[in-house]
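Try this one yourself first.
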């Protein structure tokens, strides 16, 4: 029985192919890529370039050098925002942004560098019109989270970005942390895609990516060694060296490459939706409130009138060995919108390693807890 339901935080377990690839890398060619002319360094470099190409293909980027390896999504988002905005700029963002976006924006705002406008949806989900009203001459960036890590809601990022491009010069940055591997996102009207390897791409932690549209030039927010043009006192302007300083996470990149290849052979979205439907049928029989979006993935936020999310997560963990996540999930504004701030919700989230039986086990456990709470309450 798979009782790990915290896949929105990080997917676990990982496919055997990912584990094997990391092990192969560490045992056979874990030399420093791009920092030596010898055979092992070249082999390491070749793996990095293959991964760059395949990530590019996944996100519709034909320029290999526009795929930048980062530590995680947080790093990629910092790189994108800090590398793009200038003093006096205005940035729009959704209420569903993770703190990986919000804290960068609010810090820059506090320092007086930019103005931030959090756009609220008029209806249940965002429409392009929600953003058009807020665009002005100073708006140079719009940050969109593709899938909420609180409710699983899918935002119509392509339609929004198309409208933004038709009406302004602002760039669109899409955070695909929760959607990559489940939904397709391509460059086009979207200018920058930031993601992380350890969620639905099934890679290890410690590796993420930023994919840039053609002609987008960011200032580096981290400078240092590139193994290239070492005589130059300043960071080389060429991509990807401009944005990639320091030794990359080669085993992480190897694992991410294997994860991307593995997930591309799965019908991950259909599997996810099947599990969501089973969950929906069963949870109705309880007093749990589910903050279910009209269009969403298997990231499920719940509250119960008789117990706090934290207590529910503790009961699940200590009594039933079920892993979940309680609280604000690093997305405080999403909870303000839902009316679940500051206590947050109990979040359960699925992966390709769950079967229908696993989800039934989860719902039966939630029903048992509900019955006990009702008796006690
Ligand atoms: C929507 C979203 N953005 C960004 C992140 C940050 O990802 P990482 O911790 O890998 O940087 C997360 C992680 O939970 C997320 O769900």
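Now uncover the answer:
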């Amino acid at each position: 029985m798979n009782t790990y339901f915290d896949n929105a935080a990080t997917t676990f377990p990982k496919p055997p192919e990912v584990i094997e690839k990391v092990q192969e890398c560490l045992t056979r060619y874990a030399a420093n890529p791009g920092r030596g002319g010898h055979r092992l360094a070249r082999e390491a470099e070749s793996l990095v370039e293959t991964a760059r190409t395949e990530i590019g293909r996944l996100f519709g980027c034909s320029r290999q050098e526009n795929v930048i390896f980062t530590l995680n999504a947080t790093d990629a988002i910092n790189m994108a925002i800090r590398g793009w905005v200038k003093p006096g700029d205005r940035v729009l963002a959704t209420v569903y942004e993770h703190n990986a976006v919000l804290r960068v924006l609010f810090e820059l705002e506090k320092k007086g560098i930019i103005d931030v406008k959090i756009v609220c949806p008029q209806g249940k989900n965002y429409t392009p019109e929600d953003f058009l009203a807020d665009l002005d001459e100073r708006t140079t960036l719009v940050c969109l989270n593709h899938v909420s890590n609180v409710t699983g809601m899918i935002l119509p990022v392509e339609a929004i970005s198309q409208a933004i491009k038709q009406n302004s010069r602002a760039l669109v940055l899409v955070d695909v942390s929760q959607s990559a591997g489940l939904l397709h996102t391509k460059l086009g009207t979207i200018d920058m895609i930031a993601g992380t390897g350890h969620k639905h791409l099934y890679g290890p932690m410690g590796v993420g990516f930023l994919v840039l549209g053609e002609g987008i030039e960011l200032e580096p927010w981290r400078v240092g060694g590139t193994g290239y043009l070492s005589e130059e006192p300043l960071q080389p302007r060429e991509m990807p060296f401009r944005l990639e300083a320091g030794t990359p996470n080669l085993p992480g990149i190897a694992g991410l490459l294997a994860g991307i290849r593995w997930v591309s052979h799965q019908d991950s979205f259909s599997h996810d939706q099947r599990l969501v439907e089973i969950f929906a049928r069963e949870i109705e029989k309880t007093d749990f409130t589910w903050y279910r979006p009209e269009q969403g993935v298997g990231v499920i936020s719940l509250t119960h009138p008789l117990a706090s999310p934290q207590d529910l997560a503790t009961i699940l963990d200590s009594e039933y060995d079920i892993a979940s996540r309680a609280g604000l999930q690093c997305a405080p504004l999403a909870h303000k919108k839902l009316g679940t701030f500051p206590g947050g919700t109990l979040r359960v989230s699925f992966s390709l390693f769950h079967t229908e039986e696993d989800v039934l086990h989860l719902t039966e456990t939630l029903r048992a807890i509900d019955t006990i709470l009702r008796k006690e309450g």
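Discussion: The chain has eleven helices and eleven strands. Residues 152 and 256 are 23 Å apart (CA to CA).
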